[in-house]
Amino acid sequence: MEVEIGRVTHFYNHLNVAVLRLTDGLKLGDEIHILGHLTDFNEKVASMQVNHHPVVWVKPGGDVAISVDEPVREHDVVYRIIEG
Fold it and tell me: In this structure, what DSSP letter does residue 52 have?
């Protein structure tokens, strides 16, 4: 099952970093699915930063930068994968 938790607002391709605007919380280790017109992949959240400081959890309404393995695009939708 998947729950929408936010959208991509920026992507820094030279760093492989996506900035997400969250509508739900996100924590290190969460499995996410990023889906867009040209984007469709799953990834485990391994690194997160807020204002250039590492964090382990971000509350709803916040912006967070995460490292990603593949390019993403603005407006791509981010889902949390829920097991079970």
Answer: T
